[in-house]
């Protein structure tokens, strides 16, 4: 938490360089803006959310939002990274433990995040924004490529590791879309353990089958 | 094509019962409204689309839209059913031919529809609307349940046929979301034949494995 909000009448070259408030207040403000951003993006989607609106929700001046995060796209990336934090731990499920149990570890991890109401809401917001807005999709792509796929590829040590990881992710993401977003039955009400039992071998197959 | 637009000053009990124009003009108007609806839902999403806007795009009176289709939800359902027409042929891929080739037939059919730019655009619109709006999701659920799952279940003759069909669909839908909507690489640029080769056995497994 090293953000520095602008001092009144500051004359710095950019909004990011002006003034410096007390440390704790600064960290608190930054968190408040990020939470407001997440809530606004969740509720209104990427397009209808504005820096001004986020500032209003957070109870701060819009200049502070620009100061801490930059453009709307950058606020979104910060909010996604925070919201998506739990999901970004997915590579750990691959890195830790033997490769032949990776399908079940990943499926268990993935549905654990989605079954938890506290982590499901921000994930839903990310999915909705990425599906409906090209800028949001680009941010999502960048995060997936740099924080997830690369680590998985390193672990698998196969030339087509990234394609494998994406096809495995497709089974998981598709199941989440049908179960949690569209809510088709009987999938929406099925026991998570039953789903994991059916999906884990598919994930395993995509990742490690010859 | 049996729609009947309202006659000026008609005194019928509902908008659906008033007057009757020449046959060909009526069919033509109905199609024009449906095309306008599809374009509007595609471009603006479910929430921002209105019956008034659709009427304007089609160059007709809003009363005509209500007359042919009813509420906005009903216009959406008609537009989805038309847009989704090719995808609704999926059960045929299951019904026609031996069960042990069903995974490849379904995968080939599915990616055939998505790879065709003419059918991809309306599918994208349906996915975007269903993911972001609850009413649109409900319409989508109803179509999937009545027009797709039931037919697949009849063909499979297994007690958990619908769950199997949904998990198979999840692999296909997830792959489409990552490839055509979010456009993650290398999946977005991969040869469709390579994708079909990897996805078909998964679809087959979900549907027919013991």
Structure overview:
Chains A, B: InterPro entries: Homeodomain-like_sf, HTH-type_TetR-like_transc_reg, HTH_TetR, Tet_transcr_reg_TetR-rel_C_sf, TetR_C_16. Chains A, B: Keywords: DNA-binding. Chains A, B: This is TetR family transcriptional regulator. The structure is a homodimer of 210-residue chains. Chain A is mainly alpha-helical and 210 residues long. Chain A folds into 2 domains: 60 residues, Homeodomain-like (Arc Repressor Mutant, subunit A), CATH 1.10.10; 122 residues, Tetracycline Repressor, domain 2. The first copy, chain A, is 72% helix and 0% strand. In chain A, helix 1 crosses helix 4 and helix 7 crosses helix 8. Chain A is globular, with a radius of gyration of 20 Å. Chains A and B meet through helix 7, helix 8, helix 9 and helix 10 of A and helix 7, helix 8, helix 9 and helix 10 of B.
Describe the secondary structure blueprint for this structure.
The structure is a homodimer of 210-residue chains.
Chain A: H1 23-48, H2 51-58, H3 62-69, H4 72-83, H5 90-95, H6 102-115, H7 117-132, H8 134-156, H9 161-181, H10 192-208
């Amino acid at each position: 938490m090293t953000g520095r909000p602008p001092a009144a009448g500051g004359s710095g070259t950019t909004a990011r360089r002006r003034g410096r408030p007390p440390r704790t207040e600064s960290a608190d403000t930054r968190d408040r803006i990020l939470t407001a951003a997440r809530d606004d993006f969740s509720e209104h989607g990427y397009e209808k959310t504005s820096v001004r609106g986020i500032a209003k929700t957070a109870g701060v001046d819009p200049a502070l939002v620009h100061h801490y995060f930059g453009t709307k796209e950058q606020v979104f990336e910060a909010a996604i990274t925070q919201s998506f934090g739990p999901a970004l731990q997915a590579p750990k499920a691959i890195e830790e433990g033997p490769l032949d149990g990776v399908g079940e570890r990943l499926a268990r991890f993935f549905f654990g995040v989605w079954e938890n109401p506290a982590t499901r809401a921000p994930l839903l917001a990310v999915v909705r924004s990425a599906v409906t807005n090209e800028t949001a999709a680009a941010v999502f792509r960048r995060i997936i490529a740099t924080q997830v796929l690369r680590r998985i590829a390193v672990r698998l040590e196969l030339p087509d590791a990234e394609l494998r990881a994406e096809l495995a992710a497709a089974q998981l993401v598709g199941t989440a879309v049908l179960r949690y977003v569209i809510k088709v039955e009987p999938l929406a009400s099925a026991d998570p353990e039953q789903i994991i039992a059916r999906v884990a071998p598919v994930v395993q197959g995509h990742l490690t089958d010859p």
